[in-house]
Amino acid sequence: MVSAIKERGMITYILLSVLTLGIYHIVFWTKLSKDVNALCEGDGKKTMKYVFCFLLNIVTVGIFGFVWKYKLAKRLQENAARYDLKFSESGALVVVLAIVFALFPVSQFVLVKNFNKMAVAYNEYNGLEAPKDAFADEVEA
Question: What's the whole-model pTM score?
Answer without folding.
Answer: 0.89
